[in-house]
Amino acid sequence: MRTYIVRQPILDENQEVLGYEILYREESENIEEKRSDVAAANAIENFLVEFDSNKFLDGKMAFLTFTPNLLLKNIPRIFSPQKLVIQIDDDTIIHPAAQKVVYEYRKKGYSVAINGFEFALRYFSILDVVDIIKIDFSKVNDSLANIVNIGKNFNKKVIAYNVNNDEAYNYAKKIGCTYMQGSYVAEKLPTALHKMNHMQSNFFQLMVAITKEEPNVEEIEEIISRDVTLTYSLLKLVNSAYFALRHQAKSVKQALIVLGVGQLKQWIYLLSFKQDDGTMPSELIRISFLRANFCSELCNFANGIEISKSEAYLIGMFSTLGILMEVSLENALDEVNVSELIKSALLSYEGKCGTLYKLVLAYEKAEWKVMNECAEQLNIPMNIITQKYFECVEYVNNIWKELTSANNNEKR
Fold first, then answer.
1. What are the helix (H) ranges across 154-281?
2. Which of 23, 78, 90, 225 has the largest CB neighbor count within 10 A?
3. CA dihedral for 211, 215, 216, 217, sign (positive or negative)
4. pLDDT tens, 108-120?
5. Do 85 and 132 contact (CB within 8 A), yes or no?
6. Cα distance between residue 358 and residue 166, in whole Å
7. Chain segment 196-230, per-residue pLDDT in tens
8. Where are the alpha helices (DSSP H) in 239-381?
9. Three-state DSSP state, 244
């Protein structure tokens, strides 16, 4: 039986990743039902055995919810205390034996978080053993401020989760939530980005050129060569200590040979969103890469889709463009020479391309019902979706290490 698994980043106020919550669902499990022991056990087994959990988490903490039975069977001990936050909910809090064993895990060095913490007596009965309280922001109201203050008064880390819109995000910031989780959070930048120098020049033309089925190297060279900023940044990167070239690349053509067209799209996208101090909105760029690769991989299995694998890549890559540029996505796409199929997919989920994009977003948000509907419409086999997601996460993590390593060498 297939288990769907996705990670959701938990970010601090500087947009740094504290850890990832691992969300899961059994293929046959009713969407509305509470998680079962079987579903939880299968998810953990898949997470540890079928996939490389270390690569999936990229060295960060895993936030994982355990049922009372799994706690009593010592399943969390499979994980290192330094790599796991044990999440508990009402089922555990009202279970005397499970509550007792939570204390034992805490003594062994595990961190503990309460899911959906509320101002209720049952939560205070276990508060002394808890490190983190997670507060549900799916419905914003004044009582949330009181709950956050309780957490702070007890010296607990407070995570606002289900922060899925502007109202929830702004209110969570206003009342002092240090950590946030939700679809809106991962796409929200803590500070304004500089206006892109490449906006007025060749960036978008370049992105389209390098994601064609058969990229024309001469066309790519021409586009880069007429942009001083792109040319300078590219040569500086290629000649950095990361590549350790015996002879420096002195032309755009030589730089392209060193990089290869395959890597160029990641490099250029990264370069284009550097801030003035050399930093980047890292998690948002990673989301762009992940969506791009996930769209591209699933495109191979979608029945009757009207676009190529490379065009599917662009759908994912450009999905965060409006946020990065601080304009609406529609205005951002007006500057891009992409097909109407891609634009309509991104703006209104039209056609099979739009269904593919909706599937990727639904999986990212753990909206399993929507994801299933989209997969059925595209005839994408259910058994490959999680597999491709894990492969894409691993690929993006590896790419990110290369990108940031070279960027650090460039700054030295």
1. 166-174, 203-210, 217-225, 228-238, 252-259, 261-272
2. 23
3. positive
4. 999 999 999 988 8
5. yes
6. 20
7. 444 444 666 777 787 777 888 888 888 887 766 67
8. 252-259, 261-272, 282-299, 309-317, 321-325, 329-334, 340-348, 351-364, 368-378
9. coil
Whether 92 and 156 map to the same domain: the answer is yes
Tokens of 201: 């020049």
**Among residues 187, 380, 344, which one has the least CA distance to residue 371?**
380
- Cβ-based neighbours of 381, under 8 Å, separated by 6 or more: 301
And the tokens for 242? Answer: 């990361």
Whether 189 contacts 320, CB under 8 Å = no
Cα–Cα distance measured from residue 265 to residue 251, given in angstroms and rounded to the nearest whole number: 18
Q: Which of 133, 160, 187 delimits the end of a domain? A: 187
Say what the pTM is: 0.71
Specify the pLDDT at position 67: 86
Burial string for 77-110 (b: 16+ CB within 10 Å, else e) reads: eebeeeebbbbbbebbbebeebbebbeebbeeeb
Using CA atoms, how far apart are residues 92 and 101, in angstroms rounded to an integer?
10
